[in-house]
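Title: [Solved] Gfo/Idh/MocA family oxidoreductase 3D structure

Original question kept below for reference.
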Amino acid sequence: MENTRRSFLKKMTAAGIGTAGLALSSNAAAATVTTETSAEKKKKPAGKDDGKLRFGFIGTGSRCHEHINNVLSIPGNKIVAICDIQAGPIQRTLDHIAKFNVPAPKVYTGSEREFEKMLNNEEFDCVIIASPWEWHVPMSVAAMKAGVPYVGVEVSAANTLEECWDLVNVSEATGSHLNIMENVCYRRDCMAALNMVRQGLFGELLHATCGYEHDLREVKFNDGQHYNYVPGSGDLRMGPTAFAEAQWRTNHSVHRNGDIYPTHGIGPVANCLDINRGNRFMSLSAMATQPRGLHKFIVDNGGANHPLAKVNFNLGDIVTSMIKCSNGQTVIVTHDTNSPRPYSLGFRIQGTEGLWMNDGDHVYVQGKSKPHRWDDSEEWFKKYDHTLWSKHEAEAAQAGHGGMDYVMMFDLINAIHNKKPAPMDCYDAAAWSAISGLSEMSIARGGALVDFPDFTRGQWIHRKPAFALSE
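Solution (posted by the thread starter after getting help):
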């Protein structure tokens, strides 16, 4: 199969929308600069008229539904409009909203540029973008230029270094707050570990590991009707005839070789290391194994003569990136989505006085743990539970991803109400997402060391830690 950007864009244009939202077109890369509306448009005050925060959603797949659940379960919010290019996801979303007994939002659908009409016609306090990855930056930029005060973008926020700079430059130019919707930063154990770091339990931090180790083979392929492929349930598909993420996500494994989904792991680690706030990523080196898992999955489930067995996948099954920080720490980030394995984000936060290891749920603190014996992390995390969790445990229990989706949305809404900066801002979105482009660059150069851009333009030296320090 021809692995060119032109063929990639052509396939993705035809793919249509998956569970996350809108499909890619050949104009996606240009959308960042062709949005003509409103860098000058005045931002509207939060809660205009009835005092409720006005939300809009671009991309109405299953991830959108999770966000809607939390927006509507927190008092004082309403959904003004939704946008998607396909009727099926729109109707499912309208049916979902109707369960809350609230007015139906306006619908924008049809053209792949329909989101621009929505942004220009409606007034929002916050717009959430849950579309395929190629649309994250064009839509975020359009929303910020349209005067939306807070823009929440799903992960990863950007695919290339140029896109990372687009997010930073437009946020700075417009004053709009860009928030990367990295829910793992709000995972209860991650927040407790962050508490322990801030209270000095682990001493001076030295090293961290993290990643995204998640068997996605049954997400990258399906039978065209179900989100996950069930062996024996039907034909194996990817691209235009597939369903949900298999329409667009799998093509990244065809055309790219790097850590294409880094933020679930690096976000919590970056908070522990005060990245962009007294510390920053300085350089990166990455390597990848040979690509074997996806081809083997096709052969195992569809046979050696299946048409997809001819696809040449570029993404190495295991991608390993090492990052050096300005304050001396090292970080190892692993991407592993094509292998048979249990789920893990592989967290390890290690300092001069002890460490936390997510795999095995281990904590060791010098002078408090028995020498050379692991403690169960549960006991430590009960003691150092973050107040965002202890105060909102009951509400979070009903939300997705173990409750962290609720805590994340609560924190964002709190920032909007109080006119505070985004909890995870444009500099975080850029620095965390930049691992994708930099790892691809390093791998293409045989693992060469590449410099990490300073998206804060030197302000990291003076900026202070802010994430989850107050409600």
